[in-house]
């Protein structure tokens, strides 16, 4: 069981949607949903992918913003767009868990509500843990779940590339 106080799986799904980019295919979105154990009964089609790409752009704005007050405004706007009373659900043999939209709402609405709720939790737990990769040219986003909360890169690969480039530059200058 994951005890993650930084938005949990819903925030990680938001990250994956943003990082999938606007050119994501139905299969890619389906893979993202499967990876984060979001099991829709219906297929993800081109229309849903376009709606989710637009939503991912709005989620991405939260990661791009560095001012906490502005981040709060952006997340509140997301929450307002999907406003529904959260409730606890049990289905498909799963443990009790929150739902942020009615179970019979359209797929895209349920995903929007889930990801907005996850980012809201992450923001309230620690707004500094919502970030964008520091490697020039990368732009991937992440929610920092590390112990010390000082993550700067989306992956170890981006961190290594940056550190190697810095090392080579120092050697050249010295």
UniProtKB/TrEMBL annotation:
SUPFAM superfamilies: Jann2411-like. Residues 129-171 form the Zinc finger CGNR domain. It comes from the Bacteria. This is CGNR zinc finger protein. It comes from Pseudonocardia cypriaca. The lineage of its organism: Bacteria, Bacillati, Actinomycetota, Actinomycetes, Pseudonocardiales.
């Amino acid at each position: 069981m994951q005890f993650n106080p930084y938005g949990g799986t819903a925030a990680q799904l938001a990250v994956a949607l943003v990082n999938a980019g606007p050119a994501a295919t139905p299969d890619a979105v389906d893979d993202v949903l499967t990876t984060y154990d979001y099991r829709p009964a219906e297929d993800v089609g081109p229309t849903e992918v376009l709606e989710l790409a637009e939503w991912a752009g709005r989620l991405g704005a939260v990661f791009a913003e560095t001012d906490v007050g502005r981040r709060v405004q952006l997340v509140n706007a997301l929450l307002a767009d999907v406003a529904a009373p959260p409730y606890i659900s049990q289905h498909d043999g799963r443990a009790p868990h929150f739902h942020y939209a009615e179970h019979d709402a359209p797929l895209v609405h349920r995903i929007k509500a889930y990801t907005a709720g996850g980012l809201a939790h992450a923001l309230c737990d620690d707004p500094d843990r919502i970030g964008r990769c520091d490697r020039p040219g990368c732009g991937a986003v992440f929610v920092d779940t590390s112990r010390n909360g000082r993550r700067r890169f989306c992956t170890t690969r981006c961190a290594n590339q940056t550190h190697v480039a810095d090392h080579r530059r120092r050697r050249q200058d010295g």
